[in-house]
Amino acid sequence: MTAFLITKPSNTPFAHFILAHGAGAPMDTPFMNTIAEGLAEKGILVSRFEFPYMALRRDDGKRRGPGSATKLLDFYRNIVKENAGDLPLFIGGKSMGGRIASMIADETGLTGVICLGYPFHPPGKPEKLRTAHLEVMQLPTLIVQGERDPFGKPEEVADYTLSSLLKIFWIPDGDHSFKPRKKSGHTEEENIQMAIDAASEFILNTAKSKEKN
To answer: Are 28 and 7 spatial neighbours (Cβ–Cβ below 8 Å)?
Structure first.
């Protein structure tokens, strides 16, 4: 049975967001906590979980890699099935978690996808793109990306062919976790709040649009 970390809004939620962690950190980092709490304040129920390799690390403390993409995809698909309900259901995650979510966007019952820091390519290897499925996305998708993200910067992403249903929100001077340089005049707190605002607005507008249709 998967263990979930649930962050509930104070009032009745209008949407449910499943938030997956990145490749190297668990579901309860300060970044993940802030995002979940911020979205809950906006009226969104947030459920976090850990892929099996990360859950094992929590048990024994041993670092290990994510394993095969197929296993991660199947695991996330089961997470979606476990969380099917009456609320509009959004999926996504930080970095790798967001990428895996975007790859199962054809799962029935989903309303949208949110990726926080999408790994368009490995750092320093812009030729190794991870964008093929993003060209044909059939589900509304939001990518929140730092302007200095080594996994994909504005000048690189501008040349990609992406689905018309995919929107990108750029975080000023942000790195892969949206942290800016001090000299930029921006703060990490402001940037993460910007990401929360962008994600919550996307969830609200996408849920409303689906209701009308």
So the answer is: no
